[in-house]
Amino acid sequence: MDGRDGRVGDYLTRLGIDDRPPPTLDGLRQVHRAHVGRIPYDNLSIMLGRPDPVAVEAGVARAAAGGRLGYCFQQNGAFGWLLGELGFAVSRRHGHVWARPEDQLGTDLNHLVLVVSGLPTEDNPGGHWWADAGLGEGFAEPLPLVRGDHDVDGWSFGIGAGFGAQAAGRPTGPAAWTYRHLPGGVLGGIVVTSRDHSPAAVDAAHHVLSRGEGSPFRRVVVAQRIDGPRLRTVRGLVHQVLTPTSRDQRDLTSYDEWRAALVDDLLLPVDDVADDEWTGLWDRTLAAHRAWDEAGRP
Question: Which residues of the chain have pLDDT under 70?
Answer without folding.
Answer: 1-3, 163-170
